[in-house]
Structure of PsbP C-terminal domain-containing protein:
Amino acid sequence: SRRCSSIPVAISALDSSNEEQHRISSRDHVGIKRREAMLQIASSVFFLPLAVSPAFAETNASEAFRVYTDEANKFEISIPQEDWQVGQAEPNGFKSITAFYPQETSTSNVSIAITGLGPDFTRMESFGKVEAFAETLVSGLDRSWQKPAGVTAKLIDSRSSKGFYYIEYTLQNPGEARKHLYSAIGMATNGWYNRLYTVTGQFTDEESAEQSSKIQKTVKSFRFI
């Protein structure tokens, strides 16, 4: 009798254990996916707009900027009017990469990297709050603690607005000019799965204040259509 009465207790304990393992497994799964997405965001920072093929699509815009429209990926962005080129590069692990950059030799550019996301990610808050997200992203890029020291990454600002995370930070390789980066990161669906859009503009300390203003305006102009 005592043996029979203990069976439901044992089954209940086993069920509780299985539920706990399932919760842990789910958290681990989401954590892995979050780290994968963060790695892709970080790697998009180092994209250089080389060997791209032109892909223009314009509509009316202000005198200083023109609107680039990507109907396939459902976004618009305003880019500087004078001599800025537009092109698409090899995806290299991304769903799509589009670059915008001056015709003359310059370290300034704006790139849009699109990556696929799993069903666990439905909005930017799925990655956590913007402050924690920014800290994780920038600290993941920092290698100043290595011997010899690698790239130094410093967070300047982070904020959330209208479904986007905006992050401003700097990167500096030893012996090289410091780069300023300004990113807008948002999420949208193409009808089948969610996609993460990472819009990153970069310029160096040597660039003029006017150029840096254009970069930030370009990044801030990004929107879904």
